[in-house]
Amino acid sequence: MIFSTLEHILTHISFSVVSIVITIHFLTLFLLVDEVVGLYDSSEKGMIVTFFCITGLLVTRWIYSGHFPLSDLYESLIFLSWGFSLIHMVYYFKKRKNDLSAITAPSVIFTQGFATSGLLTKMHQSAILAPALQSQWLMMHVSMMVLGYAALLCGSLLSVALLVITFRKAIKIIGKNNNLLNQSFSFGEIQYMNERSNVLLNTYFLSSKNFYRYQLTQQLDRWSYRIISLGFIFLTIGILSGAVWANEAWGSYWNWDPKETWAFITWTVFAIYLHTRTNKNLEGVNSALVASMGFLIIWICYFGVNLLGIGLHSYGSFTLTSN
Amino acid sequence: METLLNPSKTPKLFVPKTHLFKSSLLHSTFNPQPHTLFSRRLLSITITCKVKTSQGRKNDGKNVSKKILLPDSAPELSNEEVKAKPKSGGGAWGLFRKLPKIVLAVLSNLPLAIGEMFSVAALMALGTAIDQGEAPEFYFQKYPEENPVLGFFTWRWVLTLGLDHMFSSPIFLGTLILLGTSLMACTYTTQIPLVKVARRWSFLQSADAIRKQEFSDTLPRASVKDLGVVLMGAGYEVFLKGPSLYAFKGLAGRFAPIGVHLAMLLIMAGGTLSATGSFRGSVTVPQGLNFVMGDVLGPTGFLSTPTEAFNTEVHVNRFYMDYYDSGEVSQFHTDLSLFDLNGKEVMRKTLSVNDPLRYGGITIYQTDWSFSALQVLKDDEGPFNLAMAPMKVNGDKKLFGTFLPVGDTDSPNIKGISMLARDLQSIFLYDQQGKFTGVRRPNSKLPIEIDGTKLVIVDAIGSSGLDLKTDPGVATVYAGFGALMLTTCISYLSHAQIWALQDGTTVIVGGKTNRAKAEFPDEMNCLLDRVPEIVESSISKQPGSIGG
Questions:
Q1: Which residues of A touch B472 (CB under 8 A)?
Q2: pLDDT digits (tens, 9 = 90+) for B500-533
Q3: What are the residue boundaries of the Cytochrome c assembly protein domain, all occurrences included (chain A) (predicted)?
Q4: Inter-chain touch A95–B329, beta carbons under 8 Å
Q5: Which residues neighbour B493 within 8 Å (Cβ) at sequence distance 6 or greater?
Q6: Which residue spans within B209-252 are E strands per DSSP?
Q7: Which of A276, A293, A296 lies closest to A284 in space, CA to CA?
Q8: pLDDT tens, B258-299?
Q9: Does B353 sit within 8 Å of A249, measured CB to CB?
Q10: How far is CA B458 from the centre of its chain?
């Protein structure tokens, strides 16, 4: 009982803190510079609080259920949002001031919001572990996969932001109220990135707009490359440890199971992304296109396959049909 | 013969010429050895002027005099191909001799490789979209000719291209093989030469060349030696010669992609070995019965050869399940004994899911289970063994049932007691009218009275579903996995190079990196902040004073 209460409290704290962080981000867009700095610091502190809350949440669940908290979709979503905040923390400590929270904070709130929303209420109670999942490999395989998803999603969102900024001119020509267009294009965070660049450009550098836009896109490009490379490592380790596990549990290291296949497709797409980076001609917009394709493919791999509930990886499928 | 020798010579074509580096540079080679900056820096450096020698020395005797530009990344192979053609115009023999080179050039083309990866990904996606391994009738129904999917896709496509068994279809395997050859060609023609370039380090002698780097800065009143110390502290390998400094870090990150490619090839080779040299089979054995491994195992490819261990007889001593408190199955166990030809027990083990049995290259997995029979006492007579039959009621959930006739067994419509079970734990009993009467657990000895018949359920006999396989490719594949994980991690390292030049009292610093472009300027600024400012302007002329 105490565990579920604790879980509730931690969920609510982290959720509200991220909401506040996002609100602060939006505020900084419209307020003056000297106030912005202080608010920015507090938003970073907010992300740290969120990180510890989600960590606490996962640990609570671990103790409560007795197994690593990654056995169903709800837990993996919470873990995904933990992954986002972890990436944020890692790059925050590496480089004090970063623009990553524009991507990570909304990602955290979206995944958490989805996990705790009504759609998955039935799955909140930590379920029992299926026989095939009772292995030490669970920890390694699933945590690596979800961390990989988190990093790759982050990186490809940066690429999507790059694309939006690059093609913003074209969008502007189409219609004045591009905010609406952007919003429908890809969640709120891209719009936010836009706004951010907008403010930066309009306030200080009206004359050299294009130069700063170029600088921003270059930054986005480099960061997305870096984060995708990191995610690619996690994904590789995740897939390979999964293969080794499959050789223990199912009798073959590769079964062409839908989930496996889609993980491999994801891997291939991001391998293509990394290869496009080796060629100067394909860098920038082209590689960003590949990465944004990867963004969709991760979601197919993560959700789509589970939604259909086919294949051997049916542990995380939605319980809409039965029960 | 000549053509056979050709490939081995090809990489030498890409030996960089000095025009790669900005014209006025001195190009030097260096024997890699553990190196301390201050004690030996002047002794261990050997400078070889390569302005004229590289081409002549490497291509001695070979008829190659093509000019190959090596850009920072992949060489422009398409150019070479164009140039190669007019030369070989002399005759068919000339063309034939050039062929391997042309093929190599085409295969190692980056856009081609990207295209191949895209097609592999697309085929895999298609393979998950189309149901695999169904009977042709299924495809006739699902992709009818009258109503094609997307206007053109019918069952003819599926069956002619073999999309019903995508992952073993020639079209998919062909693409994979093409990708594999591309991988080899690229490693051979592009990556290995790149290593040679990366290993060859050089000082930059002109301030302009340094300023042209991706990152550059000027430090007034500083010494290049202080910079060297700071860089060494940050993990750089530092080389100093006179006023010039060269430092690098993370060279392994430059080499690791080769390892990634080789690991991929290793995995592919192992996978091929697995596909051609394996035996597989599955069997459902009721508790208490035997089978011979060789009877179950069937070869998967032409390389499959049976071994001595195939004669081993397997006896299922016991099959049982563990349950959670909620009644759901937590684990399956099978207690197996292996007997050799002489009937001697060579091994005994209880296997479960995630804990297979390995013997003589054969692995036995717990993959499935079934309900074999129910042992009942009817009015204290028996026990009778009632065979349980699997029932398909709702979806793929396991459900087994049996029927015990009651009364006149010769009458045309027999009535009796039905028994249903989802697992070996609880048996649901229904009377002659089909009404639910109760649940009994095997071993509980608790009798149940149905329509005047007293029943005791003595035991539930399960059968264990086992998968057997031999796989000679696993070792290779695992080696590839290990190598791939390691090299992918190392690939994250960024190869950073820094040049510096002492110009009077100022130091001009320039640097570049291949991956961590976002962090590099910050890191550099951080390092350069630590370089001490020199008050006395003459200090740079006393070389020994700082080293200490």
A1: none
A2: 988 888 888 999 888 888 788 888 888 888 888 8
A3: 70-313
A4: no
A5: B250, B252, B253, B256, B515
A6: 215-219, 237-241, 244-249
A7: A276
A8: 899 999 999 999 999 998 888 989 899 998 889 998 888 988
A9: yes
A10: 50
Please tell me if residue B96 touches chain A, with a CB cutoff of 8 Å.
no
Does the beta carbon of B490 lie under 8 angstroms from any beta carbon of chain A?
Answer: no
The pTM (predicted TM-score) of the whole model is: 0.78
DSSP A57-68: HHHHHHHHHSS-
Nearest Cα to Cα of residue B423 among B298, B327, B286? B327
Q: Please answer whether residues B463 and B284 qualify as being in contact, where contact means their C-beta atoms are separated by less than 8 angstroms.
A: yes
Number of Cβ atoms within 10 Å of the Cβ of B391: 13
Banded model confidence at residue A169, pLDDT cuts 50, 70, 90: low
Cα distances (angstroms) measured from residue A319 to each of A68, A138, B42, B502: 21, 21, 72, 70
Per-residue model confidence (pLDDT) at position B135: 84
Separation in Å, CA of A209 to nearest CA in chain B = 21
Cβ <8 Å between A272 and B114: yes
HSE toward the beta carbon, residue B140, CA cutoff 13 A: 3
Environment class of residue A2 by beta-carbon count within 10 Å: exposed (0-12), middle (13-18) or buried (19+)? Answer: exposed
> What count of other Cβ atoms lies within 10 Å of the Cβ of residue B133?
10
* Listed residue (B258, B11, B110, B515) closest to A279, CA to CA: B110
Which among B309, B348, B334 is positioned nearest to B466, based on CA atoms?
A: B334
Residue A40: other Cβ atoms inside 10 A: 15
Cβ of A97 under 8 Å from any chain B Cβ? no
Does the beta carbon of B331 lie under 8 angstroms from any beta carbon of chain A? yes
Position B12 pLDDT exceeds 50? no
Is A254 in the B-facing interface, judged by CB distances under 8 Å?
yes
Q: Which of B113, B331, B365 sits opposite A275 (nearest CB)?
A: B113
Q: According to DSSP H, which parts of A66-129 are helical?
A: 73-94, 101-116
Dmax over CA atoms of chain A, in Å, equals 65
Alpha-carbon span B83 to B66, nearest angstrom: 8
Other Cβ atoms within 10 Å of B387 Cβ, number: 13
Q: Record the tokens describing residue B475, joined without a space.
A: 């070792």
β B506-513/B215-219 pair status: antiparallel
- The residue with greater pLDDT, B268 or B31, is B268
A280: nearest CB among B73, B280, B363: B73
Beta-strand relationship, B389-390 and B506-513: unpaired
Query: Is the Cβ–Cβ distance between A104 and A85 less than 8 Å?
Result: yes
Q: Is A139 on the interface with B (CB under 8 A)?
A: no
Interface of A with B in 8-67 (CB under 8 A): none
Interface of B with A in 242-301 (CB under 8 A): 271, 280
CA distance readout (Å), A189 to A115, A128, B142, B548: 19, 36, 41, 54
Task: With beta carbons less than 8 A apart as the criterion, state whether B401 and B388 touch.
Answer: yes
pLDDT above 90 for A236? yes
Query: Facing residues of B415 across strands?
Result: B406
Q: Give the minimum alpha-carbon distance from B63 to chain A in angstroms, rounded to a whole number.
A: 30
Q: Residue B199 — very low, low, confident or very high, per pLDDT cuts 50/70/90?
A: low
> A226 vs B331: CB contact, 8 Å cut-off?
no
Residue B110: list chain A partners with CB under 8 A: 275, 278-279
Nearest C-alpha neighbor of A228 from the set A307, A183, A166, A162: A162
0.90 surpassed by complex ipTM? no
Q: Which residues of B touch A138 (CB under 8 A)?
A: none
Amino acid type, A159: S
Q: Under DSSP, is residue B479 helix (H, G, I), strand (E, B) or coil?
A: helix
Q: Does B484 sit within 8 Å of A236, measured CB to CB?
A: yes
Q: Are A24 and A46 in contact (CB under 8 A)?
A: yes
